[in-house]
Amino acid sequence: MTDTKTLAAPHPTRTLVAMTGSLSMIFLDATVVGVALPTIQADLNLTTASAAWIINAFLVAFASTLAVGGRLADRYGRTTIFRIAIVLFAGGSLACGLADNDLTIIIARAFQGLAAGLMQPAATAIVIGAFPKGKRGVAMATYFGVALLFLMAGPVIGGAIIEFTQWQWIFYLNLPVAAAAILLSIRLNLPPRTASPRGLDLIGILLLVTGLPAFVLGLEWLGHPPEAATWLPPLLAIAGLTLTTLCVLHATRAKQPILHVRLIAARPMLGQTIVLALVSLIMSAQAIYGAIYLQEVLEFTPLQAGLGSMPLLLPVLLVIRSAGKMYDRIGARKPMIYGLLITLLGLLIEICGVWWEHYPLLAFGMVLVGSGSTFATTPLNTDVLSRAPDDQRGEVSGLVQTMRQLGSSIGIVVCVLAIGWSVAAAMPTTLPTGEVGQQATRALEGDVVSLRLLQHTDPPLADSLRSARRHGMAAAFGVQALAAAIGCIVAFTLATDRK
Prior knowledge:
Layout: H1 3-7, H2 12-44, H3 48-76, H4 78-98, H5 102-130, H6 136-164, H7 169-172, H8 174-187, H9 202-221, H10 232-253, H11 262-265, H12 269-296, H13 302-308, H14 310-330, H15 333-356, H16 359-387, H17 393-426, H18 434-444, H19 448-457, H20 459-492
């Protein structure tokens, strides 16, 4: 008996609750660290590069293992893989909280990302199989909508934790959620096996888990290459891209590839997957750089920055179920197109708010971005999985989510590069030497504490640095607007069924 036949009958709502809790942990961990990063950096005495990899290690590991998680879920059972992944994720969260140096917390974050990559495809396949076709739109809207809320709420929760307790609780909070998800899955008596086991494709796995991390790491290093080996970042990026390309080519020839690209190669599934990746790029960058901008340029406290991000979050509550119901009535095309156009408009308004340092304008743009992205992605998630064969939904889910997380990772890296280059171009003077120069260098790289110290010791320099960072943040939001524009083009062409 397959997962789908068993899950379609007994407790679909309880199943949805259990899976939604697990996905919420993943989405929360992707963004909650952003607003807390300056505090973690100061407490563990991290360099700027090490601090950045607290976020990137999670996202890269997540993107690299999602397809593997989907294959393992289809081969060994969705419920079995889900429970194993929950335990691993809880262990990684505990290790993050106990970390006392950069290497430990980065490895622990990568471990969390690996576990998340195993967990999400299994959980998504369980949910889509638990509901009949006519009710999947609302179910998946709830599933991804609640998780998206946690993605957007990350800065708020992180700011509150930093304000009232220690940063370690950002990770410790995952432990009771993981325990509850395990208990619920046991009480529901979800089936442990599926009907269609497949091979693991070790060559594909090796190419994937080496290619994607190398590519993202190489891109990230382009902004600050090591002085003794400036050739290393481009070489690493090219090698990673080559390995990833070989993985895709291998997938087109292998009988049972880890990335079964042929499952989404047909129009419009390929276009829909690209749109989902682009929207993930936008939303991850919004959650992280929005909170950082509010602290750096508008001088909000961490908690104020988290609360200041609420206009991005609240529309999700109002839109998510309507988007799911709309899919059940008219399909994915119109919600996708309208959502992307609204998102693009919101981003253009946000750029004006960033440039003029005008929070009300920025907040209005956030409302549009939150609403539009929800309308765009909720129907697409459901439509892509509904098009897939039932016994391959775990695999398709893993492939689609790999694209989404890769979009998030590349988006953060490209925003970092855009900020770095724009800041360098906007700085009119040479930085001073000595301790003031070191503080200025850290402030240019986004150290809020150093920037605020300079406001007392050298106000003119602090103002110049703050203006340069504003230019950089405007460039980061410009990258997001470009992604939205590309998404609109894809939505009108490749992601639309031919008549």
